Amino acid sequence: MKLKLTWLMTLFMAFVMQLSFAQEKVVSGVITSAADGMPVPGANVIVKGTQRGQQTDFDGKYSLNVSAGETLVFSFVSLLTKEVVVGASNTLNVALEEDVSVLEEVVIVGYGTKSTVNETSAASVVGAEQLEDRPIATVNNLLKGNATGVVINQGSGQPGAGSVVRIRGISSLNAGTDPLYVIDGVPVVSGDYTRNNTTSDVLSTLNSNDIESMTVLKDASATALYGARAANGVILITTKRGTSGEPSYSFSVETGFNSKAVEGPKTLNAAQWAEVTDEGLVNALGPAYAGYTNDVLNPNGVDTNWADAIERKAASQQQVNFSVNGGSDKLRYYTSLGYFDQEGIINNSSFNRTTGRMKIDYKLTDKITIGQNINAGLTNLKTLSDGGGFANPMLAKYFARPSDPLRNDDGTYFIGTNLNNPRMSNGLFNVPMLLENNFNKARTLKLTGITDLSYDIMEGLNFSSRLSLDQTIIEEDAYQNPRHGDGFTVDGRSYAYDTRVFDYVFQNSLNYDFTLGDKNNFSVLLVQEAQKNQYRNVSAAAEGYGKEGFYTVSVGSNDLEANGARTQYTNAAYLASGSYDYDGKYFIDGAFRREGNSNFAESNKWGSFWSISGAWDIAKEGLFNEATVNKMKLRVSYGQVGNASIGSTSSIDYFSFGGEYGGRIPLYVGGVANPDLTWEVNKPLNFGLDFGFFNNRLTGSFDYFIKKTEDLLYSIPLSLTSGLTLASGATSKFVNAGALENRGYEVSLGAKVFKGEFNWDTKINFSYVENELTSLLENDVVNGTKILREGESINTYYMRKWAGVDTANGDPLWYINGKDGATTNDYTQATRELQGNSLPNYTGGFINNFSYKGFSVQTLFTFALDYKVYDGWAAYTQSGGQYSLNYPGYANNLDRWQNPGDNALNPKAVYNTGNQNSATSTRFLYDGDHIRFSNLQIGYDVTKVLPSEMFKSVLIYVRGTNLYTYKFDDLLEYDPETRTSGVIDLDLPPLKSYTFGVKVSF
Amino acid sequence: MKNIYKILFGGLLLVTVMSCNDEFLENEQFSTTPQNVTSVGDLQALMYGALVEARDVTYYGRDMIIYGSVRSDLAYNTVASGRFRGPSQFSMLSTDAYARDTFTKIYQVIAQLNIIINSDFQDAARANEIMNVKGQALVLRANAYFDLLKLYGQEHSGGTLGVPLVLAYSGTGSEKPSRSTLVETHAQIAADFEAGVTSISNSGLASSSKDLINIHAANGLAARYYLYKGTTQADNASLQLAYDHASDVINNGSYTVIGADLYVNSFAQNKTSSNSIFEIEVGTQAKLGTTSIAYMYSDNGYGDINALPGFIASFSAVDVRADLINGNNVDTKYPLIDGSNSIKILRYEEVLLTRAEANLRLGINAAEADSDVNAVVTNRDLPAYAGITLAETLEERKKELFFEGIRYFDMLRLGMDIPGWTPAGTLDNTYLYGNTKLAFAIPQRELDVNPNMQPNPGY
């Protein structure tokens, strides 16, 4: 197989490489590192001015046909390139010096690349080594702990689930808060486009093994280039491209299994449930009910463990990746295939992905380069009902009675005794039956093609043009069986939903780099960009499936739904940016972008965005020893970007259509004409310091920022009497009003503690962000468990404060003033107060990588501190006996008040109590603070003991993901990582994975 | 070769210029149209839209019917599914979703109606149709304010406030109305009913479709309102209007009381039953499924709203109406568990019982009262009354219209105390007439944004 591939690739190369046969003599030698004298495998040796060359083998050896007088160029990443003229000798050994500026790599920035030396902005870069082979489906999750200023909430353990990414806090109330994703220079759609699945992310069609780097752009200087969509930060994803040289292959295979990262609340068994329930009945209705013990409530002595019935015994995890890259100085290619398969810990929840990528750059002439970048990603997702859906397995876990059997004696599922309404004894569904017979599936195909053209008009002046076509096709199928569950009353139901998003981006840019005198370096960039995004969907559903096993809509006897929708938006922009530096010491950058967006009214379509930034590298002033202080760069940036994430009907009033009335066509009034609506303005101010000491063995950066958002796109609630209630149920309109601020700092410190045979690299990323609503059109807007109040964070909880259980009589108590002091057992007498916020203020990661000879150990700890999570279902599952009879709830219901003097977690169990004990209060608000051992990889490179001519490396590894989670709050039983809202909503718990893999390079 | 590049770059430049003009940034809409009425069809479509909104579960699709049934001496809520806990157990908070959602939906219907009522669209050739649809809108608006008044007004909870009257669609959302008084609210409802009846009548158009408001539906709804006002306020003029509007339906409509043999089945009929005057169409496409009334009433759904044992026992053994009750489930008044039955808003039997009650209260014609009530009861397999009393009329009304969203408001207008029931169907508490909890909470959501809105006390 491998040989065949090699042969194929060789054939391919033969087509595209113009091989030269100027045959004179053979020069060979060994390339070593000057620092430690070790051979350097994989270094490039190229004959200058030709396409001839090769890479060194495992022992650092090369052998090349050259003629005397030609120049050989020796190069390797992180080592200084060396040129040697071929003389009389046939042996040429070269020792390459270490490149002190290794950390001054080129980084990908908006619309191009930049040397970090010139960088004046705040950006975090995460390299391929942190992204490859992780058992995590969606690439943005991998930023967790690896980049400063980024908070990622996965929220659900559903494989392929969407995550919420927040860069430097939340900078908007009602407009979008997701960052802009830019893949290979093209802004792309992200997020969940499924309509009949609980969670997904189109970014999950991307294979993280194809990614060279992810750059998080945070301040104005970095993001202003993206104008009206940059307010929430920008994540640049750069995929791998070929490097000149012989084909380099990589093959990896990994397998393992998944379980829960955090166990979650335990359930009650039948006897425990009966005990709590009977006590509640007696307390509510008197001693006459004392007989409702396990024998009565559960005469058949059933004791079903519903958690076991819904959970997979072993959820598997697999991935296989193959890539090859190489090229000549005319052509470079990278191509890959990948397969990823992950099962959730609940039956019927899974995700798999197949990806193929081809990236080719070809130099047509000396001046013209064309490139083609094609990616196809196919994912298959199976999700489950969530939240309060009766089919939600997490709900069934806590709501199903243990006294109901899972199966009948004949092995079929128990679905109750009423044939007209097959339900379990408490009216719920047998969810394991549904997991086996129902499904919600999404098949997503994302095809992206980017065509690049680059024309070097003259020295320093380049024109380039790029066209990106991006089509996302999502086919969703769902089925509810006719025997039991939601499909029963309608004889089964199936849905077929089709969703398509087509996005094209057309960019033209002109870049001019020039130097005046010796030291005045200028770079000017002009860009024109146009984007059109077209969305459409078609939905069909039918009911009445006489026979099971048929899901096609046309089989259904009763058509339920035939819908279609279309929306589109367009975006046009002109951009100018320039940068200047003097001798690599002083830097000034500026950018201006004029952008138009179709979603705004005629008079407000266009907006202007800009930034200015400067930097001064004090290390270059000669004040310090150059070897000790390699870099000490002060940076400052300020600018104005925008947020235009609103819908296409946000600025207009209209009549809308839909549905029927007795066969007649209705019209509905909707929307508010809003010609003044405009962008939300975001003004980030950033101060930064980058430093490198001791030959860059100790490096790091510090950033302080104040990010102000003005003219907030605020969805102001309108009087319900206005009748302006939208289909979504909201009675509101957008206005530009109010302001908020995110302030914080970020510290990133890296050190090469040991270097040589034993290597120890360590890095810590630490971010702090605080949010303050500085002005609001209306004060104290209470929304469920949260409040918007001037001077407070926008994520502030607002509820009554739990004061525990009255030890004398078991009553629930709340603080009257919402803080402290006097208590009351009357819920309505207690006032609501601020109770902390739902977004972590402190986040970060701690990375340690060790290697010794062939052994390597990589570790990542992540943490999030200072935030609270609210258990949104505890009102039922920990109800103080109120719902115990029907819904057993958590095992912690056992810890209840029974006798005077009891110091219990829960109040006296009273069936159907009206004491509001489980109504919203801090009783169910927990500290989410946690530290997680996110990644441990222990690997061994077999080639270190079994040197091979064939393989560059054969890495065998075991990896643990989310191995251990330390929660600061003992009472919190759920995983502390939840939705951005902080609400635990009976979601699938995040995964813990153990994987074993082999990665071969040759 | 060079020329190819020139052509290529020239082409790029052209596309560049083309892609950035203002046309490129036009906000193209695919499923909405500008807010202009340009035909009679638009006005009628807005009327259909209002009725679609009214069939939402938060209004006639479910909640309004359940409120009128569960807060009474007819029904209790087992709260097995947790639904209607606030309304049925009088444990409503100002943040209660039921209080908020029904308030929201009714005003949404009113906004839709206000556009029709205030439209200045003219079409001389179709002036009758315009007059007719405006009349329908006025009647439906009167009925909507009547519903708001019954739920949120302080008439039975010791206050003087009615509900905010919004009579024009602003489209700006800038309105922050205060509550009109009970007197003002009543005046507006009466004016809308009268104007609506006149307008439909003058249009000369007779709709035979039971899912739209024709002249009889207009008169019948007006009669229901005037009976409510007349009994609540002991106002004979209103009772006379109730009598007159009901008489109009009885004398001029071609409706009949449904016979005993067809009675149970008649509730399964959509828009065809001879006793039905006005229904809100649902149908299979818009069926309400698990959010339907049927799902709340039937044990084949949640089955949370059950008939009280005492009420079940009150039926005579031969009374066909008892056949609607199966165990303690009333599962044949809204028989289809998928919630596709159209919602019956006004039946001929109610109009007869309304006239009989107004008649007896005013002492107009005892024989006619007998015949009105007997037209109903003899078709229920019961013996005819001779010299019927007011109490007997009210008892028949209760038995005829139970679980149809009428009883709670009847009890209120009769000044009765309202019982609250435990989930087991035993008496939990009695809310004396005048108790603040007899009016729903003005939603906190509205109080939060509208400083002029006065809350209802007790929440």
Structure, explained:
The complex is a heterodimer of chains A (1002) and B (459). Chain A is 6% helix and 47% strand. Chain A is mostly beta strands and 1002 residues long. Chain A folds into two domains: 2-98, Immunoglobulin-like (Sandwich), CATH 2.60.40.1120; 123-263 and 310-391 and 429-795 and 838-876 and 922-1001, TonB-dependent receptor, beta-barrel domain (Maltoporin, Chain A). In chain A, a hairpin with a 4-residue loop joins strand 20 (350-363) and strand 21. The longest helix of chain A has 16 residues, at 270-285. The two termini of chain A are 14 Å apart. Residues 1-23 of chain A have low confidence and may be disordered. Chain B has one domain (40-449): Serine Threonine Protein Phosphatase 5, Tetratricopeptide repeat (Alpha Horseshoe). Chain B is 48% helix and 7% strand. Chain B has helices spanning 2-19, 40-54, 63-70, 85-89, 97-118, 127-152, 182-203, 215-232, 236-252, 260-266, 293-297, 309-313, 348-362, 366-377, 390-401, 407-413, 444-449; strands at 32-33, 75-77, 276-280, 305-307, 325-326, 329-330, 343-347, 418-421, 427-431. In chain B, the strands form four sheets. Chain B has a two-stranded antiparallel ribbon. Chain B has a two-stranded antiparallel ribbon with strand order 3-7. In chain B, a hairpin with a 2-residue loop joins strand 5 (325-326) and strand 6 (329-330). Chain B is globular and about 105 Å long. Classes of the chains: A mainly beta (1002), B mainly alpha (459). At the A-B interface, strand 25, strand 26, strand 30 and strand 31 of A face helix 1, strand 1, helix 2, helix 5 and helix 17 of B.
